Amino acid sequence: MGWISGIIGGSLGAVIAGPIGAVIGAAIGAGMGSGQQMQTGGFRVDQTQQRQAIFFTAAYSMVGKLAKADGRVCPNEISAIEKISREALGLDPQTRQYAINVFTQAKDSAEPFSSYARQFGDLFSHDQQLCSTMMNFLFQVAMADGELHPQEEKMLLEAKMEFRLPESIYQSLRNHFVGQKSSSVSLTKHYEVLGISSDASISEIKKAYRQKAAEFHPDKIESKGLPPEFIKFANDRLAEINASYDAIMTARK
């Protein structure tokens, strides 16, 4: 079961400090309180599994804060997050229940969004590919209702700062996701996926494509300790990058 066994076994909450560690402990406690069958002890987790658990917990902690950005969590936001969990990440029932517990504990916590983003940045800012993947996920959740609210964008900007992400990466993601409000698929959207302008040269297009494809290649991301559930998310992004590159190159011919 990997990192989720370490969570359920209770062997990770005690070794992870800060707000993320507190959410892990609270989520485990919530699971026990609801009558969920949880084992304790007997699990050994390696460094990769610990990184996976932190990444996953940080993701749903920040999602909990994003969902409550306007002061309340709307039913359509819950539905959108559940759809992303089921379709984009393919969470199994056990992992989905843990995600729900984390989401609930974080959204009701007194800790601000920036606390979770800061701890994630302190742990992962040296690896900008993982930070970019996290920001990509946060943008997808924020835009799940088709609109980027001012308070949501404030939180995303906090994440950009805490992740030490370059402005160019943030703007590329913003252009891509905010542009998705339109149902029409145009070449402009495809250029935004690659993070380049429509007047880019063929060599610039190819360079941008290679960089994006490498950034979201599942093998490369998995080797860095990304949770297996997010590998599917990376696969979907890689397919989108490939499709955009093909569309642009076909139009250039």
Description:
The protein has helices spanning 3-8, 18-33, 47-67, 75-88, 93-107, 113-124, 128-142, 150-163, 167-179, 187-194, 202-215, 218-223, 228-252. The protein is mostly helical. It has one domain (3-252). It is globular, with a radius of gyration of 18 Å. Mean pLDDT is 82; it is low at 34-43 and 180-184.
Top keywords for this entry?
single chain; 253 residues; mainly alpha; 13 helices; globular
Structural class: mainly alpha
Average the pLDDT over all residues and give the rounded result: 82
Q: Radius of gyration over alpha carbons? A: 18 Å
Into how many domains do the coordinates divide? 1
Q: Give the distance, in angstroms, between the N- and C-terminal Cα atoms.
A: 48 Å
Principal-axis shape: globular
Brief account:
The protein is mainly α and 253 residues long.
Helix/strand layout:
Layout: H1 3-8, H2 18-33, H3 47-67, H4 75-88, H5 93-107, H6 113-124, H7 128-142, H8 150-163, H9 167-179, H10 187-194, H11 202-215, H12 218-223, H13 228-252
Helix pairs in contact: 2-3, 2-5, 3-5, 3-6, 3-7, 6-8, 7-8, 7-9, 9-10, 10-13, 11-13
